[in-house]
Design a protein that fits this description.
single chain; about 110 residues; mainly alpha; about 90% helix; globular
Amino acid sequence: MSDLYLFLKPLFLTLTLECGLAYVLGLRKKELLLTVLINLITNPILVYISLLLMYHIGIEKGQIITYLLLEPLVVFSEYLLYRKYLPVKRNCLILSLMLNLFSVIGGLLWQRMF
């Protein structure tokens, strides 16, 4: 499996899920573009660190650290970016939490199905 695939698959799934939910929640053009740009930053970093952890300390421990430590950091980082750049004022922490929770659950279901 190519290294690029390891990054593109979760990125594509995250973008699809989070932008879909963001649209359902009422975000539109500029806001959806912001969602894409934020995830283009945070997702590859998360995947890279997660893969490093799984390689060095094992898959199970790496996943535990990813879900318990790294994902909350992503939620907080994305919250700060939404708060700063979202043109329409919303509860950015709830938005970030909902989008990321939806993405994590969708990713876990995807892994179980395929």
